[in-house]
Amino acid sequence: MGQAETILSLFKQNEERAFKLLFETYHDTLLLFANQMLDDPEAAKDVVQNCFVDFWVHRRFANLPNGLEQYIFQSVKHAALNHLRGEKRRKKYYIAAKEDEQENLNADETEWNDEALYKALNELPEERRKIFLMICLEGMKYQEVAEKLQISINTVKKQMGRSFKFLREKLQKNIFITLFLLWTKCRKKM
Question: Domain limits at 47?
Answer without folding.
Answer: 3-83
